[in-house]
Amino acid sequence: MTEAGSRFSWPDQRILLTGGAGFLGRHLTKKLVERGAIHINAPSVEEVDLREPEQIKKLIARVKPTLIIHLAAVVGGIGANRSNPGRFFYDNAVMGLHLIEESRKAGVAKFVQVGTVCAYPKFAPVPFREDDIWNGYPEETNAPYGLAKKMLLVQLQAYREQYGFNGIFLVPVNLYGPGDNFDLESSHVIPALIRKMVEAKKNEASSVEIWGSGTASREFLFVEDAAEGILLGAEKYDGPLPINLGTGSEVSIKELAQLVAHATDFRGGIVWDSSKPDGQPRRQLDVSRAGELLGFKAKVSLPEGLARTVQDYRKSMGL
User: Which of 4, 21, 63, 199 is the most exposed place for a label (fewest CB within 10 A)?
Assistant: First the structure.
């Protein structure tokens, strides 16, 4: 919420966007330009190592941002999380800790931290309400990543209380869409399913194998909707409470596999490898706070979003 009589103006903002070259970052940059933003600085990982406070200090001194949107993260699916728990904890925690501290010291007017649904307890009541974020330990396979992000919520709330630092914390659910990561070693479930089924159809394979039992549920947010929610947060919200960003509806992994099969026109069988973990049993967000405080509502349905993502993947592969 902006002060009475004030109006948020994108052309007036000097924006530092971390992770701007990533999946969400590219879509967010496009929307920033559409909003009229002129001063956008999105350094690459080669330009600035956000784990190093001196590099962050020099970056902020050079850019002199009025607004920082922190997207940069080390992320991946269940397999990547299981293989890199230490890296996923350290890199994600230390990047945010240093960036928030240097922003505070430099007097940055607003900081937008993008968190993760992985911060929620493994057995949080469904739908996940923001008030339940501390009522239990996260699902084990992605707990280091989720806890690293959740520490930044603590930092922002503490800094608001002690220093008056205006930092907000947004919690998007699982994202997907054009330009996603389709590397099977590190991708999330939707791009992994799309790649497997497109390749299976091309190679005339009789079946595809999918991790888990298929009984777990997930909620998915199209990346363009997520970018819109983040910009609404920057424009309209200046409070300490975390805000969920999602659709408010869940789908089982078995149902998702059928939707992806339809979108890719894959007509073979699906083999479930139940020796592999399902991850968190259920994920569905309560998105009422985002509606009330941001006026946010997701626009892209899952079937439409899958069709657009499949089309983009096929185009990128020359299919």
Answer: 4
